[in-house]
Design goal:
The chain is globular. The relative contact order is 0.15. The protein is 54% helix and 8% strand. With 300 residues, it is α/β, with parallel strands linked by helices. A five-stranded parallel beta sheet has the order 2-3-1-4-5, sandwiched between helices. It has 13 helices and five strands.
Length: 300
């Protein structure tokens, strides 16, 4: 009997995954990353199931490897001495191990779709914190899709989402204007950092605007698929646009019909105008006005 009877089947799936291209969907929280992920996952050539939370795995790996290498080194020095029986993990082994774990996660959630898939991807807002590592070592050939939305709408949506789950005070510190000040700085810094990371890699980077998905979904989705080099015929785009529409995931509500208890709260742009007074507008413009203008948003 085989010692590891389940391993062979898993290895076959992993081998299939290793031949796929990879993609990453990133953006600030409540910028529309889930919407883009659903659009991608509706395409027969793309498997993008959601959030693998790989950043958490990445943060824990260095400590685990240090402990492992320490144990191996002790065994070599104390037990085997001159033989140096075990090789400690170098950076190359760490990268391979991490990629294996990513592939294993995809292998256990592929839902039988791998036969037709060209791309396998992940959506998360945490990639930015180690973007150079993801870009250059962990996913060196991946395509990165950056979802951008007016930062003031992101702020409002994020705040109301935290209110829904009871974390509003924790998020704002009890001060709405303090929250706006902090959020504007963070939103601008994240946008600038991600764009800068791919300024010289246009073939690996594509931006999707939340507002374009609202106002011109067919063209925006077609541009996305064209960037990936997958099928983009009109019938398929129409089908995917309908399958990923706000109305479908909101339980039938129309865009603009608000439900503050839902993750899919309102589905519109410009809602910040209903929540920002002149002071909040001025604070956001002071801290992020340059970024707003560079993206084509008016800063006041």
């Amino acid at each position: 009997a085989k010692m590891l009877p389940d391993l062979q089947k898993t290895l076959e799936v992993l081998a299939d995954i290793s031949n796929k291209q990879t993609l990453v969907v990133n953006g600030v929280v409540k910028s529309g990353t889930t919407w883009v992920q659903r659009i991608l996952n509706a395409h027969p050539e793309v498997f993008c199931p959601g959030e693998g939370k790989f950043s958490h795995l990445l943060s824990g790996l260095p400590g685990a490897v240090r402990d492992y290498n320490k144990a191996l080194d002790y065994t070599n020095r104390v037990i085997y001495r001159e033989q140096n029986f075990y090789n400690v993990w170098r950076v190359e082994e760490c990268v391979t191990a991490f990629q294996f774990c990513m592939a294993l996660s995809w292998a256990t959630s592929n839902h039988g779709r791998l036969d037709t898939v060209k791309y396998i991807g992940d959506k998360d807002t945490d990639y930015l914190s180690n973007i150079e590592l993801w870009r250059d070592r962990l996913l060196p050939d991946a395509r990165f899709i950056h979802v951008i939305r007016d930062g003031r709408d992101c702020a409002v949506s994020n705040l109301l989402q935290k209110r829904r789950v009871g974390l509003e005070v924790e998020m704002t510190g009890g001060s709405f204007y303090g929250f706006v000040d902090s959020y504007a700085k963070g939103w601008s810094a994240k946008i600038v950092k991600f764009r800068k990371a791919f300024a010289n890699l246009p073939e690996r980077y594509h931006e999707v605007r939340y507002e374009d998905l609202l106002n011109a979904p067919t063209r925006t989705i077609k541009d996305l698929f064209c960037f990936l080099g997958v099928a983009d015929d009109d019938a398929l785009i129409k089908e995917i646009s309908a399958a990923s529409a706000f109305e479908r995931f909101s339980g039938g509500r129309e865009k603009g019909e608000e439900n503050q208890e839902s993750f899919y709260r309102k589905g519109i742009s410009g809602d910040w105008l209903n929540h920002f007074d002149e002071r909040a507008r001025s604070i956001f413009a002071t801290n992020a006005g340059e970024t707003l203008v560079s993206l084509g948003y008016r800063d006041v």
